[in-house]
Amino acid sequence: MKLIVAGVLCISLLLLVLVVFKKRLGLGWLTVFGSHLALSALAIYIVNFSGLSAETYIPLNPMTVGTVMVLGVPGVALLLGLKLTLI
Question: What's the CA dihedral at 46, 52, 53, 58 to 10 degrees?
């Protein structure tokens, strides 16, 4: 089973590299991705420790950071709203 998972991972990595270099994207997209990742984690960190909402805490995990990366600041508001509504 581990061999199959490793094979799928290798094939996926190879296809991703092929797409990046075939489309001539270069490595500039890594800078944009990294900056969005850092800024979204910083936004969640600021909301957690600023005291704006004392009863809520948004964990820093890949799902929450990914949500904020895609949606931006409204993503933080969405996560706060879900946390207040569901808990």
Answer: -10
What are the backbone angles phi and psi of residue 49, rounded to the nearest 5°?
Answer: -110, 10
Q: pLDDT tens-digit profile of 57-80? A: 889 999 999 889 888 889 888 888
Q: Tokens representing 24?
A: 């001539």
* Dihedral angle of Cα 41, 43, 44, 47, to the nearest 10 degrees: 160
DSSP letter, residue 39: H
Q: What separation in angstroms does the CA of 46 have from each of 15, 41, 69, 70, 76? A: 37, 9, 15, 18, 10
User: Strand, helix or coil at 61?
Assistant: coil
At 30, which amino acid appears?
A: L
14-71, pLDDT tens digit by residue? 988 888 777 776 677 778 888 989 999 998 998 888 877 777 888 999 999 988 988 8
**Domain residue ranges in the chain:** 27-86
